[in-house]
Design a protein that fits this description.
about 150 residues; mainly alpha; two-stranded antiparallel ribbon; 5 helices; 2 strands; about 65% helix; globular
Length: about 150
């Protein structure tokens, strides 16, 4: 028997709050917290590095990353973990409330979003990658916590 088999894990509900028919999940809250904290870190670093970025630029970066992570993560899940099922019923691709995101798809999505954002903001892509490397651990941290709850 492995040592972890003896640990009693508490029963955790993946739903943080229910408001009528709406269920707010810990996983969704983890995404929100991760992006907010990453955005604050990026704003702080951009000011410290004197990149000349405005608050609007940081909001644009965060929103672009949200889109890249969600679209990339979902498409990665569809392609790598259930392509046959989704080809049989393509409408299920949009049923994100049933779960299904992949880290590697989200990574590809955020890299593509970074290329677009770098062009829109007229800044070097590698500088944007540096900012992301500093901000991303917050999101990854909250994601791991949400995985534990799930």
């Amino acid at each position: 028997m492995s040592p972890l088999a003896a640990i009693a894990f508490p029963p955790l509900d993946p739903i943080a709050v229910r408001i009528g028919p709406l269920a707010v999940r810990w996983y969704g809250l983890a995404y929100v917290a991760g992006f907010l904290i990453a955005g604050l870190v990026v704003w702080w670093i951009a000011r410290r590095w004197e990149l000349g970025m405005s608050a609007d630029d940081v909001v644009t970066i965060v929103l672009g990353c949200v889109v890249g992570v969600i679209i990339g993560g979902r498409l990665g899940y569809v392609v790598f973990y259930g392509l046959g099922d989704y080809l049989a019923d393509p409408v299920d691709i949009f049923r994100v409330w049933d779960g299904g995101m992949s880290f590697h798809g989200g990574l590809v999505g955020i890299l593509v979003a970074g290329v677009v954002l770098a062009r829109v903001l007229r800044m070097p892509w590698l500088t944007l990658c540096d900012l992301g490397a500093v901000g991303a651990p917050a999101g990854i941290f909250f994601g791991r916590l949400a995985n534990f709850v799930n």
